[in-house]
Amino acid sequence: MLLEVRGLVARYGAVEALHGISLDVAEGEIVSLLGANGAGKSTTLKAISRVIPPSAGEIFFDGVSLAGLNPEDVVQRGIAQVPEGRRVFPGLSVIDNLRLGATPRRAKRAEIDADLEEVLGIFPVLRNLGGKMGWTLSGGEQQMLAIARGLMAKPRLLLLDEPSLGLAPLIVKDVMETIARIARAGTTVLLVEQNAHLALQIAARAYVLETGRIALSGAASDLLKSDEMRRAYLGSAVRVEPSPTIPA
Residue 200 and residue 177: Cα distance in Å, rounded? Predict the structure, then answer.
């Protein structure tokens, strides 16, 4: 397994947000984390990336413990996180935002330039926007920029937190298709997503969190057909937008 989480506990002060969850992500997979707001999905990603130090439990990446590392160390190990809300730097151009994503690698300029060309090939919409300021982009373009910036860290594992948040259904479809392409190109993805239906279409497996505990898990195709999943999570607890099907 590329990522192994065992008995993860995370707290915000005296409040325990994660109650000993365990999950796995194999290399090359898209794995989705689903659940209602406040279930602990974003906290799980923050604990993996060490933005929030876990209170208990173990996290292994490629067989090596992440204990004691800071977020920059985690990026250098090969894990990059695209946070909820995109957080594009508004005073920087698209190209400068992308170059900033490569900063933790401390790579040579020529290597970064080559990676920039590769990323712009994945996100052709950004190529013609290179000189524009981040704040001038549409919501969908900003989300593409945020994901592209994450890829500039050359991660083996990309953590995506709510990439469809606030986007129109057709834009969400484009974002999901891009995530699927990224995975097919070799980057493993752990996806926190509110659009359960589309997330399950592109994922190999999924975990459903409920108040800091894993309530359901399994193959994404099985969860899509599960009466329990449909009744409890595809109904009201997890918002499902009417969206076109993502091609395989």
Answer: 13
